[in-house]
Design goal:
Residues 1-22 form the signal peptide. The protein has 490 residues and is mainly β. Helices cover 4% and strands 41% of the residues. The chain is built from 2 helices and 38 strands.
């Protein structure tokens, strides 16, 4: 196997001959180390990857012992802390920022530890009284970075993901009920003042904001009394503009109050998702109805701590859409390209629906088994990757096997395998430093060349093994043990 991995790396170096690597000028000596996929190692517990740092560290969740374990590329444990695990099977969220790993365990406190020894570097207590209307334990997290790795200019965002408490409760502060905090990941200090909604404001639960394809802005949907609002937030400053869309929503005949809005690469064009999902009927997720919501250009931003409408009631317009539009969160390739993938059920066909951030999406043929792999809650996360300079997403092929779909066009970038899956995928991942995408499916874990789809290696897996991934670590968890692959410099 070592010879095969060496051949893969050598082929990549041949392909890159004459070009600069990693930004080095042409003619400069090559680095003395080369990213290489190490031999797999076994962990004697069921684990999923929470985050890795690309420097030989990974934070994994041990679900049986309810621990977060920091390990190195050999599987050796460096330190551990107690893990948060909820009744729905969710766990602690974590992010890597330089030599720190930051953990949100839904306790109301976010804590940064040093990767090497687990020493606490900083902590941030979400403010508010004990009887806060927006309780501190209901703040989820996300980053403005690529996946769970934070770069120098990226922020850690804490967003209110709950529903306001009924009865008597107390606002977070004089500004109202807090909904969003932005932290500098190196210090834990607020990058800009938190944002709040007043006593008449309500959120819908779940994800509060959705990042734009360029990750510079985000949009938020909420209610102010009987009014429906959309707020656009500049993530570098926290300045924001709020537009009432109550009149524009007149075409929404779903009969429900909740709705969602997603950004596109055009800041004036948003995708409005009708709130028709029935939580008691999973199949309802296959029927997404969307509209095109248009905001005025040149919205005036404010730095007010409390969100409020900044424009007139007729500023936004909306019309039903029959063309494909992306109505879910974008995910990002290791090089920062945006992609989304959804499933749409029609009377006589199943289709993929997606986009690279453009307001205009695409349809592509999909097999019925894609419902279990792409659609349902708990399905493996879509992990886009860079393929020949474009964003691509893996999906079950309409005629079997696996296809890489161009996120910009919906066309097949490559097709691998002619087998037919009988069970949902166990997960997918990408290892950009060695040019591989990884898939657990059909009782095996397969490593494919990300540019051409060539099968490089495969390993036996059990039917219900689960794959989780960072950018340098792959975990495939079985019932009692876990196999780990790590990218190391040699």
């Amino acid at each position: 196997m070592k010879r095969m991995w060496a051949a893969v790396v050598a082929a990549g170096l041949v392909a890159l001959s004459g070009c600069s690597i990693g930004g080095e000028p042409e003619g400069k000596p090559s680095p003395t180390t080369t990213p290489t996929l190490a031999e797999p190692v076994e962990l004697d517990y069921f684990a999923t990857l929470t985050v890795d740092d690309g420097a030989g560290h990974a934070l994994v969740t041990d679900w049986v012992e309810e621990k977060l374990r920091a390990i190195d590329s050999t599987g050796e444990e460096l330190w551990s802390i107690d893990a948060y695990i909820n009744d729905e099977g969710g766990g602690s969220e974590a992010y890597s920022a330089g030599d720190l790993v930051i953990v949100n365990d839904y306790s109301g406190t976010v804590t940064a530890y040093t990767w090497e020894d687990g020493e606490e570097a900083w902590s941030f207590d979400i403010p508010g009284p004990d009887d806060a209307c927006h309780e501190q334990m209901a703040f989820g997290s996300r980053s403005t970075g690529l996946g769970n790795r934070l770069g120098e200019d990226d922020l850690l965002l804490l967003e209110y993901s709950g529903m306001r408490m009924d009865g008597h409760c107390t606002p977070t502060s004089e500004a109202g009920n807090a909904v969003l905090f932005a932290l500098d990941p190196s210090t834990g200090v607020e990058a800009w003042p938190s944002l709040s909604i007043d006593d008449d404001g309500r959120t819908f639960g779940g994800s509060l904001i959705h990042l734009a394809p360029d990750r510079k802005n985000a949009v938020m949907s909420w209610k102010s009394g009987e009014g429906s609002m959309v707020t656009r937030i500049s993530l570098d400053t926290g300045r924001h503009a709020t537009v009432p869309i109550t009149k524009a929503r007149a075409i929404d005949d779903s009969g429900v109050e909740h709705f969602d809005v997603f950004p596109t690469s055009d800041e004036t064009t948003l995708t409005y998702l009708f709130g028709a999902e029935d939580p008691d009927d999973p199949m309802s997720q296959a029927f997404s109805r969307a509209a095109e919501l248009t905001l005025p250009a040149g919205l005036k931003e404010t730095d007010s701590a409390t969100l409020a409408a900044d424009s007139g009631p007729n500023a936004a317009t909306m019309e039903d859409a029959t063309d494909p539009m992306c109505s879910t969160d974008f995910t990002f390739t290791p090089e920062g390209r945006a992609a989304c993938l959804q499933l749409q059920l029609f009377a006589s066909a199943v289709k993929y629906q997606g986009s690279d951030g453009s307001p205009e999406g695409w349809f592509a043929d999909a097999p019925e088994m894609a419902f279990d792999t792409v659609l349902y809650s708990g399905a493996p996360r879509t992990v886009p990757f860079d393929s020949r300079g474009k964003a691509a997403v893996l999906a079950p092929g309409p005629d079997g096997g696996v296809v890489a779909i161009d996120a910009a066009t919906g066309k097949t970038a490559w097709n691998a395998g002619d087998y037919r899956s009988t069970t949902p995928w166990g997960g997918e991942g990408v290892l950009p430093d060695v040019g591989l995408v990884v898939l657990t499916d059909n009782k095996k874990t397969s490593f494919y060349d990300s540019d051409a789809g060539r099968l490089v290696e495969e390993h036996k897996a059990d039917q219900y093994d689960e794959l989780t991934s960072g950018y340098s670590t792959i975990l495939v968890a079985g019932e009692k043990s876990t196999t780990m692959w790590a990218v190391v410099d040699r």
